[in-house]
Write the structure tokens for this entry.
Amino acid sequence: MEIRRLGDLKTALGECPQWYRDQLWLMDCRAGLVLALDPDTGEEMSRYTAPAPLGCFAFNGEDGDAIVLALKEEIAALDLRHSQLRTLARIEVSGPHLRLNDGIALADGSFIVGTMHVFREAGESPLGGLYRLDTGLNLRKLDTGFGVTNGPCVNPVNGRLHVADSEAKVIYSYAIESDGAVADKQLFVRTAAHGSGPDGCAFDTEGGLWTALVRQGALARFDMAGRLTHKIGLPVVHPSALCFGGRDMADLFVTSISNSGRLSASGPMDGGVLKVTGLGYRGSKRPACRLPL
């Protein structure tokens, strides 16, 4: 296994890496940037801007000319050809410390995204929750109670949706019903024993869930029973998210934080993108949204 820095990019809040058309895409959420990098050199290939803070993004349609973006409290579409932004939906609550955070496209073309609500009063329940925007642009709340939603991803073996709450240091799993609702909520794993909440997540093709231990400078892999199989130290203090990519989907790309507003680090690689090769696992390409834009 080899871990190296990819290029010299330094993000404040690197997030949401995705493999798309032989390029690595990611965000700097605090800077309001969506970037595409050469996966071998780290050279910047494309750059787009949107109102910060950004939460996540997913590609839409087959041509890749638009992305679905989670902004502070609304879901929007960004036309990459003309840099035009269009609001698609808005969550029903608002607050100075509430915003949309991590999300993903599902195989049915819908978009799943969850909120983070930090700096709450003692005993105050978090606002927002987990939402699904369907292909008719109908927004539905699926669950509540997430302090910091992260890493939604679907197990390729059993089809269950996994969602992390970084604040509670847990990852849950759900069955996805035919109408897009979720059911059978189960505790998948608690990560407190590993010294950190889970941040971004990704599955390998064997059903192993990889997550960034954001306060431990490490990656962890859990098998389908929630047992730790791998823990890999990284040369960054706060890894944030990860994805599989490369020609054989066998490389793992990891984003990191230099200054998220709550977490900061000033080491030579903090805020950089890491490329991990030789893991012996592969991932799958993510689906795209199919929203009418």
The mean pLDDT is 97. The chain has one domain: 2-277. The chain is about 0% helix and 50% strand. Residues 236 and 269 are 6 Å apart (CA to CA).
